[in-house]
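Lab notebook, bench 4. The sequencing result for the construct came back, and we need a structural model before the next group meeting so we can plan mutations. Quick request posted to the team channel:

Model the 3D structure of this chain.
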Amino acid sequence: MEHSNLPPRSEDLIAGIVQAATESLPHQPDVLAKARALFGPLLDKLPLPSGESTLAHADGVAKIIAYIGGADNLQAVTYMLYAAEHLNRPQEVIEQAFGEEYATLAMQAMRLTLLQRNQRLQQAAAQEGKSGQIEVVRKMLLSFARDLRVILLRLASRLQTLRYMADNKVPVPYALAHESLYVLAPLANRLGIWQIKWELEDLAFRFLEPETYHQIARNLGETRQQREDHAEYLRLRLEQEMAALGIQAHVQARPKHIYSIIKKMRGKGIPFEQVYDAMAMRVIVPDVKDCYTVLDWAHSQFDAIASEYDDYIARPKPNGYQSLHTVVMEQGADNRARPVEIQIRTRAMHEHAETGVAAHWAYKEAGAKGYSGQSAASSHDAKMAVLRQLLAWEREFAAGENSHAANALLTEGSKLLQDKIYVLTPDAAIVELPQGATPVDFAYSVHTTLGHRCRGARVDGAMVPLNTPLQNGQTVEIITIKEGGPSRDWLNPEQGYIASNRARAKVRAWFNALAQQDVIARGRESVEKLLQREGKTALKLDDLATQLGFATAEALFEVVGKDELSLRSIEAVIKPAAPARTEDEVLLHKQNQWNERHPSPKQGAGAGVLVVGMGSLLTQLAKCCKPAPPDTIGGFVTRGKGVSVHRSDCSNFRNMVSDAPERTIDVQWAGSSGTHTTSENSARYPVDIQLQTGNRSGLLRDITELFAREKMPITSLHTDPGKTANHMTLTVQVADTHRLSQALADLRRLDGVFSARRR
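Done. Here's the predicted structure in token form:
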């Protein structure tokens, strides 16, 4: 069942009225007659594209609005919105005659009508069968309309158009019928306007698939009016029987419309004979005990189909839905037995099914068991449940003294959809953006490359700054350059260029890629210089990368540029294997080994390093990692050069240990108990420092002054300018690394220094 006549709960109504703070249409005596008299002569002379007189169309729309419970003031707006399209200054004319509120609503409705017409003409073919785009159109219609009454007017207008074309056998454009069936009808369903929903679906489907439509109509064997009369007969009979049993039951009955029957047949893959709810009734009772009482009565009065009985009260659905479902065979006046579905539930179960997560539209249009193929799991859907209640309240108040409160509630309801905006491309494609989005957000939403090359924007034909917030319904055109990328200013939240996380992530990815390119270029330069020095320029870089265990040459350049792979490791691969040693070389090696076992007392003393468990040996500090006290160090016995001292985390040291673990030796810094003591006259050690800096004037002076204060002389300095940052390498003399750590921390605090680390 698509509609509930249950009144709203009083506490919800009061809360909604208190929260409502928007304007509404004021009541004016004879406003409907006045509007028709003023604009009727103009509209009578203007035909619509369908061939229908605009005045006749407006009359039909007003009758539909009245049928669904709309008040006279909303009916009067019908004539205003159609006249607005043909007036020179419609805002002023309508405002002077009826007031600002009427003029605003009429202009909003007219603008939505024109927008939808343009969208339908330009993109009907592209949208066919794309449920995602269809859903965006629905949400755009709601979000674009400042007042939900605009949507009511639009739905009524389309229904009147289809009625006219059906009555006069006017050919219906495919795009118009498709839009009616897949955009407007589901929108009416979600808003709870079942009167418009079912007729839109049947008429639109009749034009799209006439043979299928007429086949189902013949199977039903009755006209719509006959089926509605029979449903009313069954409803009254059941109400009387329940009253006789002492049960206060609210009974609803409806014949299933043709399109709904067809959709169920196709969705479940069943023939017409197995559609048991072509006639359906719903009984709403006070408590659960009454539910089973009604069920017993139904089974005693009619023949029940046992396979079609479901007890969702005892076994609720996963979404919390509860009800009793049964199908009985009812003997009609023509002696034909027809199936009638009966749903029995309490008032609380009904409210949950209509406005909770088990809402009818959500089941019919979405989810694993739905058969429309559309997704409804979103915050937007939760808002739609509230809007359905707002429309129900409007129908309750339209005829009473509380119409002002109802109008305020309607306008308040439209605010629930304002977390998103919907703008158009120059080709009339709809783009969904967060509230506060800018042309930059729009560009990145359309395509990443468009966002990178964005340099300007036109909104509704006028040039605007890139940080201009967009509004619903605007047409945005992006001005680009052939090559280039985003600006770093776009990432500054204070300048307001970007509102969406998606666009911000794409800008960050661009600059991260640039930094990676700088690293790769630096690594390539180092590798190519090494190959030139070794006379290996003919060696293919991809082959070299493969030998070192990398998939591509760029991957090799990246790790070299990050100093994660030493050039010595590359040298070991490109250099030929050492030839076998001669007898003289063997004797020389033995002599060197004897010298290492019997060192001179002076060896090793100057380096400040002691070999554990031995006398003084010749030691030298490795140039690749440049250790300094109190770094954790290790020794490696070299050929003819004594013990090479490395930092324990040195990649070269780890490679050498991996290749020849027997040549490692324990070493430590000279001093009491293996610790190194520092003073003003202590030995100093060279240490390399890497900086990433900007181009600030005076930055180099600040860096040199800092090291001067720390009494760390700078012995060399090299600068490599990059696209995004300068890369600087310094060699300083330090007594120990404790003071170096403090100096690095002070460096990072300098304005213009992005990073500072020991190499």
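Confidence is low (pLDDT under 50) at residues 1-24, 372-377, 598-607, 672-677.
Will bring this to the meeting.
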